[in-house]
Input
Amino acid sequence: MHISEGVLSAPVLVTGAVLSAAGVFIGLKKMDYEKIPEVAVLTSAFFVASLIHVPIGPSSTHLVLNGLLGILLGWMVFPSIIVALSLQALLFQFGGFTSLGVNTFIMAAPALIAYYIFAFPVRKTNHFLCALAGFGAGVTGIGFGALFAAAALIGTGEAFLNIAKVIVVVHLPVMLIEGIITSFCVIFLKKVKPEILEVNR
Amino acid sequence: MHLEEFAEGNSFFHRLDPRVKFITIIPYIFVIAFMKGLNGPVLSLIISLVMIAFTGISIKKLLSRLVVVNAFVLLLWIFLPFSYSGTEVFQIGHLKATREGFLQVLSITLKTNAIVIATIAILGTSEVFSLAHALVHLKVPDKLVYLFFFFYRYISVLHEEYIRLKRTMTIRAFKARTSIHTYKTYAYLIGMLIVRSYDRSQRIYKAMLCRGFKGKFPIISHFHLTIADLCFGFLMTLITVLIAIISKNG
Amino acid sequence: MSFGYANGRKIFNNLNFSMEKGDRIGLIGPNGAGKTTLLHLIMGLLKPDSGEIEIFGKVRKEDRDFTEVRQRIGLLFQDSDDQLFCPTVEEDIAFGPLNLGKTHEDARIIVRETCEKLGLNGYEKKITNRLSEGEKRLVALATVVAMHPECYLLDEPATGLDEKTTQRLLNYLRENTHTYIIITHDLGFLKNVAEKMYVLSDSFIKEL
Output
């Protein structure tokens, strides 16, 4: 879901940067100095998890898990994602620094949506509903991510309409897989270490 | 995990002060990102290539990196030529590829590569930790920089944990397929990784308390500006202004 | 003193333990007996459910009571990666002294002295992450030594170390420290460093 450098128009880049800056600002306000190791090492774990390729039919996809990260971190998902994307921009030139704002927003905003809708049911409800909420969070993370990426492209020019459609369509199966994996993941965490679901309290 | 493969070396670029690097590259790449047409992008790609030539980075390594970056650009080459109206170049079915479309996607390709190559030449030639250090001095919120420090520090530690977990799956005859069982197994693997990272963060925090952590991180400064840094800063600023003017008029 | 974890696991039930200045204590016991837990209770990283902890002649209850304890007692963690969280060796060693209010100049001197003591000269600018397991352990010890504690708590310091590094560690302990508790599973190692031995099991501690 990374959009490369040099593609998007100036207004889109600036809008993305401003929105993400606001998100990061709020996220940092909610993150005390004592929280830094917790958020950071969780981010490392998600970074490593994103290197995992899971099979999907004849192809494979790497995991994003932004919905799950959102449930765990709330607003702190913005700082978390921006440091992860900065590192990718720095080391692999994935995404990049001019599109850092847009790419951060594409991943972090859906995570935040997932947090507001699904964090409560994940924490408070029974096994079945918790699994369902986890599924919802995974689908939301990828689904809205693809929509925001498409919006950034269409905002750059109508010529990008077809590519935007393709991006949304190829993410449909990914949505499903992220939903399934996030669902099993929240159940696992709830059983093994429920306090992780309270990190952002 | 070997991550900083371009940071090894001793070229002019490897020795530059990371603070100067940030101050010069940010305007440079944004000017390129905001460009339209072809003149500016061609010129900036040439400038970026000159920079990378000075770093002594092997062409093979550079190319392997550019291939990955251009995957997205390739997608654009498939769609964009057909999405602009204008002079027809060729036709497939009722899809018309236009000259305007090709120019547009060519411009994007040049811009993408100019930015990426400059990023590798300027930022890739520094150690990640020293770049992060520079950000503290450039008034980036310290919480964000420390988040980055800790995050980067523990990637390799968690990657090792991941390898260990993966190995225990392999010796128990796990094979990845498109099946619920596979996804469930990966979910538990990731869950375990998250649990371990959480436990580790608790121990790290305890270790910080033991060493008198009171909520602030002390900063040790070790940057010294040299004449070379100032010259580079001046030259880059000049170049950035020039390409901005040229692309506007061209 | 009694202590149990939030998940319901009871560790200590009316445990009694005391040590004096100059004691060199070895602590052994089966996995899960609470050896590490005991050290963390001493440092105030965990709080007892009942009973009291008295250190340096004062009862310690609140977090701020332990601030002084953490300055005067140094804990070496089992996993060096937990302890070395700064980018470079120099910053890691300086972290404690700077928190104690030392100036940057003083901190630099402490870093140099500590490195000399532990044979880590030339390691100052190295990235901690890229050190070997043995080097990491020595640097972790250096971060503790840099705070000049009067007493050391060492959680399995020799685990995973080769003979040579273990020897370096031993020499340092013998020559530069007087009071410590060492946790280990290695009885051979313990005979070399400890004058008193305690076994911790089933929430009891007794001298051997």
Remarks:
- Chain C has a mean pLDDT of 89.
- The first strand of chain C starts at residue 3 and ends at 4.
